[in-house]
Amino acid sequence: MKSLPQTLRAWAQDHLLRRVARNSSYLFISNVISAVLSIVTANLLGVESFGVLALVMGFVTNINRLFSFRMGDLVVRYLGEYTTRNEYARAGALVKAAGLAEAATSLIAFLGMVLLAPIGAQFFVKDISATHLILVYGVSILGSLVAETSAG
Fold this sequence. Notes:
7 helices; mainly alpha; about 85% helix
């Protein structure tokens, strides 16, 4: 049986374990920064405004998810298969079709969000004046027109 110092030395020399530990530390630091920024934002805005912001963001995000077809999964599933068989024309056609379909559904999601913004402001935020906040944040749907396809 190895002693503790020998085990720690072996772990320190393991390249893969060092990479995992380094990447995990980046993720941990990112989450800590996010938590601190959330607390600072809540303090700056106040509890009510921070709650309205969270409701607006949640409403728009859920409308976008409702219309999402998860094109990234499609690209991951079939693109690798086509490229391993050297069917680059089919792989390109798949990516183009997925991008166009995702762009079309993003536009439909944006239009749906525009139509549902007054209802969301009235029933979820309980303030009809929050409609403009929903519309402003809703532009983020257009900003991620082909995000799933490109991530896939």
